[in-house]
Amino acid sequence: MKKIWSLFGHLLEIGAILxxxxxxxxxxxxxxxxxxxxxxxxxxxxxxxxLFIYTVSFASGLAIRERAFVNVDVFVNLLPQTLxxxxxxxxxxxxxxxxxxxxxxxxxxxxIGRMQTSASLRVPMHYIFASxxxxxxxxxxxxxxxxxxxxxxxxxxxx
Length: 159
Prior knowledge:
Layout: H1 2-36, H2 44-66, H3 81-113, H4 125-156
């Protein structure tokens, strides 16, 4: 099971890196075209927006896994260690529950995207809308993984 989680995380990392590199390449192309070419490509703004969306989508689950999101813990740190642990479990569970709702509706939204195409790239929008499913789905998986791990630690008395 650890190998599957590791492979899944590795695929998300590759997706985030590739989409970010694509974003950088498209933005550099736009800058170069504006400075040195008579006309700049019209599709670069839309492509950069879509690549940014996918970069965030791939990286969000990884950020949950690494607990890399910014949080304010001034008041939480005043609580006893045991209460802090259970509060973190509750918060992870609430994030997972909220994102499960988002995931459900993001799947419904994919049907709407089949009927639309993007303005410049002419890409079916369900490919773009799928980014919300990727983001919410990975956040649900990693948040629930954190809940399970932290409950085991809390019940087992580990750190």
